[in-house]
Amino acid sequence: MRRLLVIGIGAGDPDFVTVGAVAALNEVDVFLVLDKGPATADLTAARRAVCERFITHDRWRLVELSDPERDRRTPAYVRAVDDWRDERAALLEQALTEEVPDGGTAGFLVWGDPSLYDGTLRVIGTIARHGSLDLEWEVIPGITSVQALTARHRVLLNRVAGAVHLTTGRRLAQGLPDNADDVVVMLDADLACRAYADQDLDIYWGAYLGTEDEILVSGKLADVVDEIAEKRAAARARKGWIMDTYLLRRPGAEA
Ligand SMILES: C[S@@+](CC[C@H](N)C(=O)[O-])C[C@H]1O[C@@H](n2cnc3c(N)ncnc32)[C@H](O)[C@@H]1O
After folding, report:
1. CATH fold of 145-249, please?
2. For atom 21 of ligand 1, which residue has the closest CA?
3. Domain ranges of the chain
4. Which residues make beta-bridge pairs with 95?
5. Matching CATH topology for 2-140 and 145-249?
């Protein structure tokens, strides 16, 4: 039997790591890290820093696996994600077999919280269904980038008894969700909200939340969208990658 701890480490600031996550970190023998893309080195360094800061023994190891490339050009996006997940599952299953002894504990350090736009739990589900490894796993929740965003802007996520729509830049580009007064947008490569700058919307935008590079902008979308686009482009050029999240809010309902 191998034990897996899927640990949400919060979306940036090491102070977001919960007491429960610290306890879990200290139970892990081997951390498996799987990332791809321009932010990989920085995110792996951030995970290593979390381990170094919070683990009080020296028996842990961190193993970096090279993530299979996802086919981002195909229109069959969902299928591409599925194929990619299968490849990731095969890679992780092999790493679990080779790197973690029977009876040992592996840790997956998930940016933010494992329930939000993260494939780790699906991949573990695939490995478990495959059935060749005896696994038991637990999830330790973390502070999401959405919580970091609302905290930094000191705003509520929802209005009184209101609903909140959570979506991606790709979906927002297809239209503003119907009947949604509060929309949180993640994974937006192109600042899709620009298309709605003619509407009466407020925006609360944050990049690299919880890190020393954090940038915050808020205001009427029409007034601040160019400023956001400029800051975003400059930051991306400087760092080579960007992670940003924003809340679009239709003014009116009681805050
Ligand atoms: C793959 S998702 C992971 C989300 C993560 N599980 C969470 O709980 O926030 C990556 C997206 O999360 C958002 N994100 C994550 N960390 C962020 C941060 N520190 N600042 C701003 N946005 C962030 C961005 O929208 C980014 O494109």
Report:
1. 3.30.950
2. 244
3. 2-140, 145-249
4. none
5. no
| Alpha carbon distance 106, 6 (integer Å) | 9
Atom of ligand 1 nearest to the CA of 115: 6
Task: Give the residue, out of 9, 35, 43, 145, with the most ligand 1 atoms within 8 A of its beta carbon, to mutate for a pocket test.
Answer: 145
- Rounded to two decimals, the pTM is 0.91
Pairing of strands 135-140, 105-110: unpaired
Ligand 1 site, CB within 6 A: 11-12, 111-113, 116-118, 144-145, 186-187, 206-210, 243-245
pLDDT, tens only, 219-253? 999 999 999 999 999 999 999 999 999 999 999 86
The string of DSSP letters for 92-116 reads: HHHHHHHHS-TT-EEEEEESB-TTS
Q: Are strands 61-66 and 30-35 parallel, antiparallel or unpaired?
A: parallel
Task: Give Cα separations from 47 to 11, 42, 61, 129 (angstroms).
Answer: 11, 9, 12, 28
Segment among 38-47, 87-96, 118-127, 135-144 with least mean pLDDT = 38-47
- 2-140: CATH, from 3.40.50.300, 3.40.30.10, 1.10.8.640, 3.40.1010.10: 3.40.1010.10
Start-to-end CA span in the chain (Å)? 50
- Atom 22 of ligand 1, residue of closest alpha carbon: 244
Rounded CA separation 104/60 (Å): 11
- Both tokens of 166, joined, read 């959570």
Give the torsion sign (CA, 205, 207, 209, 213): negative
